[in-house]
Amino acid sequence: MSTGFALVKTDGAARLGRLETAHGAVATPAFMPVGTAGTVKAMMPQAVRDTGAEILLGNTYHLMLRPGAERIAALGGLHAFMNWPGPILTDSGGYQVMSLAALRTITEQGARFKSHLDGSLHDLTPERAVDIQHLLDADISMCLDECLPFPASPDESARAMLLSLRWAERCKSAFTARPGYGLFGIVQGGIDPELRRQSAEGLRAIGFDGYAVGGLAVGEGQEIMFATLDVTLPHLPADRPRYLMGVGKPADIVGAVLRGVDMFDCVLPTRSGRTAQAFTRRGPLNLRNARHTDDPRPLDHQCRCPACRDFSRAYLHHLVRSEEILGLMLLSAHNLTYYQDLMQGLRGAISEGRTQDFVTAFSTEQALGDLEPWNG
């Protein structure tokens, strides 16, 4: 028995579900904050929980280099190591290997790369990627794949997709099935509908606990991303969770939920928080802007986070301009709370059969901008 997924309700293509793991349940659609190196940047674990997050993402590549998967295993696994008792999904390292193009070579066997930390050589094979994630005690492990940057030629997309399928078979063979733990395959194929179909059907034939759509959010733009989802998701099984990797902006997430995606991750909310950008129901705000200097209002009148509950825009602007760490912490917590509230709103809308109304209201409010008067 692996991870379990129950599809609770649908509204059009949008899906309300429940994912059961060894470390707890996750309501979907779900957004996973990114804890690259065993921490969500500028956030204490309890603060992450307070945002409403139920599952985090950890990074195989970074953790294998420092402090090392074997060391984390000896210290009780990643949950104990970072004091996160809830579910954890770990990516396979494929995306980081893509970003290290100048430092790595890809062969049938796997990826050989130089550490960005000290230049040491490492081999990341499908079997090793699965082993590392087992040592980390990840509830959900991801197959090793070759992710290409955009744009990629049709020949390159086909080559990488077929290689990723062969690696997926090896990952499945290496994975140790046990209660509450699952392995997800990753659909590749660039923006070619036929390659995406072949990849999805090939992964279904192997059989996985969930299916991710990879190779998007790499520069292709929202319109192409949505078009690729439209031709990919129908080929994935309805009774397994669907995970869109590395996405994204709030409007990207809303559009993908409308198309039937269940899970998301992205560094955007925390990275934006560290660069003074706040997401609100009226669109993003740049807290560096001088117009916030004397503004007594909260960032978002409807937000429950500490930044909105306890502090003014003027104070947050002051923290940012003074380069105080508290400003980064408060804005990161706010952004993650906004994302979790967005997911909760989507789940409620799907449950009540009013998803399209929710999306219309979301788009309307975002378009108003912050200079319009707030209600309430």
Concise description?
The protein is α/β, with parallel strands linked by helices. The chain is 42% helix and 18% strand. The protein has a nine-stranded parallel sheet with strand order 4-15-14-13-12-11-7-6-5. A three-stranded antiparallel sheet has the order 1-2-3.
Q: What does this protein look like?
A:
The chain folds into two domains: 4-265, Queuine tRNA-ribosyltransferase-like (TIM Barrel); 273-368, no CATH class. It is globular. Helices cover 42% and strands 18% of the residues. α11 (268-274) packs antiparallel against α14 and α13 crosses α14. The protein has 376 residues and is of the alpha/beta class. It has helices spanning 45-50, 60-65, 69-74, 78-82, 94-99, 126-136, 154-174, 193-206, 222-232, 250-258, 268-274, 306-310, 313-321, 325-351, 355-368; strands spanning 4-11, 14-21, 24-28, 30-32, 34-35, 56-59, 88-91, 104-106, 111-114, 121-124, 140-142, 182-187, 210-213, 242-244, 263-265, 277-278, 285-286. The relative contact order is 0.13. The termini are far apart. The strands form four sheets. The protein has a nine-stranded parallel β-sheet with strand order 4-15-14-13-12-11-7-6-5. A three-stranded antiparallel β-sheet has the order 1-2-3.
